[in-house]
Amino acid sequence: MIPIDQRGGGYTPKSHRFPKAKLLFRVFKCHSSQFFFPEILVLALLFLPASALAQTPSDAIAFEQQQKWPEAVQAWKAVTAKNPNDAGAFAAMGVDLARLQKYDEAAAAYRKALKLNPKLPLQLNLGLAEFKQGHFTAAATSLRAVVAADPKNLQATTLLGMSYYGARKFDLASQYLEPAAKADPANAELQQMLAQSCLLAKKLDCAKEQFRLLLQQSPDSAPTHVLMGQALDGLGQTPEAIAEFEAAAKLNPNEPNVHFGLGFLYWKSQRYDDARKEFEQELTLDPKQAHALAYLGDVEWKNDKLESAVLLLQKAIKENKDLRIAYVDLGAIYLAQKNYKDAEPALLQAVKLDPKQPDAHYQLGRLYQATGRKTEAERELRKAQDLRPADESVAGKMPEPTTTKEADPQK
Q: Minimal CA–CA distance to 274: which of 249, 251, 252, 256?
C-alpha cells in the first residue's frame, strides 16, 4: 500500500491514469495533523485517573513533544498495563501507533478505548486506520458514524466514499464522492474515482457529465476518452462512443484494452472487418487478452473460418473460463459439425453463465432435435422464443478498476 505522506504534504500523483486501489491513498490530499488529531491526546488525558497520572503519562507526553513515537508508545503501554481500564491512555497510544504507521495496532488500541468509553472522539481515527490497511468495509462502518454525527465533515465524507469504492460498492461510493469532488474540483483523481463509480453503478448520466468535465481539464487523456465512450455506449449512443474510443486509440495506441473496446463497438455495429483489425491489434499488445480472443473467434466463425475460430475460442476459454460467447460459439460450431458430444457441454455452460440469453437455448434446442430428444428440444426452443437478447454494452466487457483485495480484519 502507498501511505499518505506523514510529513504533511500529501502523496503527489505522478499519473493522470484512472485510480486503482493503491491510488486511494493518493487522492485524499491532507496534512497528517488533520488525521491524527493531536487534540485527542488532550481529551484522552481528561479520562486518565489520578493514579495513572502519577505513573508515566508525563513521560509519554514528553516523548511525544520530542516526536519520539516508539518511546511514547512504550510509555502508554506501561500505563495501560498498570491501568487496563484507562480509555484515554489507549486512545493516546493509538494516535502514536498511527504515527508509526502501525495501523493494525492503532486500530486495536482505538477499539479498546471506545469499548471502555464510547464517547471518545475516535471513530474517524479508527476509520482511517482501517482504511490504511485496506479494510474498506470496516473503515466504512466507523466513518458512517462520523458522517451521521456531522454530515458537513468533508474529510470523513471523502474517506467514506473512497472506502466504498475500495469495497467495490460503487453506488454508495458515488453518493459520498460527489460532494467531495464538488468541494475539490482540482483533484483530478477524486473526480475520476467519482466518474468510475457512477459508470460501474450504471448511473450513466452522472458518469457522462463527470467524464465531460474531466475532458475539459485533460482533453488528451486516453483513459478519459475510453471511459466516456463506455458511458455513451451505455446510454445507447454507440456512434458517439466509437468516436471516443477512436480518439483514445489515436492519442495512445498502446493504451490497454482500447483496441478491444473499439473492436467490440465495431462488432456491435456489425462492422466485422474493422472489428477484426482492432482485436488483432489488441492481441499484438496482449496475446492473452481473453475477450479479444473470443470476439475475434466469433468474427472468424461469422466468416466461416471454422478451424481458426475454434482455436481462438479455445484459447479464450483457457484464459477466462467465464466467457459465455466462447461457449456459445464453440457449441454452435460443434453442432454444425455434428460433434454432439462436445457441443452439449459447451452450450450447457453458456446457459449456466447466463440463462437469460436466448442464443444458447436455441442452439441446445437444435442439438436436442438432431439427437431425437423431442421434449428437451421443445423446452429449449420455447425458452429461446420467450427470451429477448440483452443489449450488451462495452462497459460490461471492459475490465473494472483493479482494487486491492480487502484484507481480513481478523488477521
A: 249
**pTM, full prediction:** 0.69
**How does 52-90 read in b/e, with b if 16+ C-beta sit within 10 Å?**
beebbbebbbebbeeeebebbbbbbbbbbeebeebbbbb
pLDDT tens column, 214-273:
898 889 999 899 989 999 998 899 999 999 999 999 999 999 999 999 999 999 999 999
List of residues 6+ apart from 35 with CB closer than 8 A:
4, 98, 124, 125, 128, 155
DSSP class of residue 398 equals: S
Q: Where does residue 7 rank: exposed (0-12), middle (13-18), buried (19+ CB within 10 A)?
A: exposed
Nearest to 12 by CA among 187, 216, 205, 193: 187
Q: Report, as ranges of residue numbers, the positions in the chain whose pLDDT lies below 50.
A: 1-23, 25-43, 45-46, 48-55, 403-411
DSSP string, 183-222: H-TT-HHHHHHHHHHHHHTT-HHHHHHHHHHHHHH-TT-H
Is the distance from CB of 162 to CB of 137 less than 8 angstroms? no
> With 0-12 CB in 10 A as exposed, 13-18 as middle and 19+ as buried, what is 252?
middle
Nearby residues of 287 by Cβ (< 8 Å), 6 or more positions away? none
Q: Is 18 in contact with 221 (CB distance < 8 Å)? A: no
**Which cell numbers in the block locate residue 292?**
479479444
- Number of residues that this document lists for the chain: 411
168: left (phi over 0), alpha (psi -120 to 50) or beta: left
The CA distances from residue 20 to 131, 261, 316, in Å, are: 15, 19, 25
CA distances from 342 to 18, 329, 368 (A): 42, 12, 13
pLDDT given at position 356? 93
Q: If you search the block for the grid coordinates 455452460, which residue do you land on? A: 349
Alpha carbon 127 to its chain's center: 19
* Per-residue pLDDT reduced to its tens digit, 371-406: 999 999 999 999 999 998 877 788 778 766 554 444
